[in-house]
Write the structure tokens for this entry.
Amino acid sequence: MLINALRTGSKVIKNMKEIIYTIPILMSLVSASFADIDRAKQAFDEGDYNYAYDEYLMDAENGHPEAQFYMGVLYFNGVGTKKDLTEALRWYKLSARKGFPIAQHSIANMYEIGVGVEQNYQEAFNWYKKAAVQGLRSAQYSLGEMFRNGTGVDKDEIEAAKWTIKAAESDHALAQYNLSILYDLGIGVAVDKAKSREWTERAAMLGVANAQYNLAAFYINGQVSVGNLISAHQWFTISQRSGHKQAAEGKATLEEYMPAEDIAEAIKRADIWFAERRK
């Protein structure tokens, strides 16, 4: 019952990569240092993008890589200024050439997807690698995907697994899920069912719907806890609420073999799981 994300989950993974451009995630990835950047960050958080633009611009023009990166974010998203992808790329590159990893990752995304530039997988690969070697987990994940698919670089399953492991160990949720599949099928690594289960659980806890579905399957197959249909139902419920289209069918099948009190307990556990995540 394991879902092979490497065959069926690519669309989900591809869409997830676009989150690099969303403001809340970008704002959480770096910390401000100079006074002007502190004021700019506060203005950005409060939605005062015009003031943020003015504050970031001063430091960006003086060569501060973090400010240059955020100028790229402002132009890319069209907040505080008119949307201009060419200008966004210019500021990203000024920051990236000073070694700022998130700027390097943003450039790679633009080249990979073909946003504001002509699509160029080799350029994307080169920029992802610059960020990945500095430890940026999203870049490590993307680099692993490019090695796995042979996109912008020769296909190399061992290199793909290496970078996926690095990202997974830094709590990149999709990398953890993909790694569970790699260990299950022995792609770039030796088959290891125990590690497959471990990474499935870790990805499930971070909210990956496919991992949650597979974790339910582990419970059904007795690979986590023998015959624990309550836990299986719980994870099918969680997976369904996370958007998995097949989870409802799995849950309905289980309910044919479960008494009402066990079903209620499973739903209660799922409710608690979501409540704890909202804290």
In short: The CA atoms of residues 133 and 163 lie 10 Å apart. Residues 260-278 form the longest helix (19 residues). The chain has two domains: 5-202, 208-278. The mean pLDDT is 88.
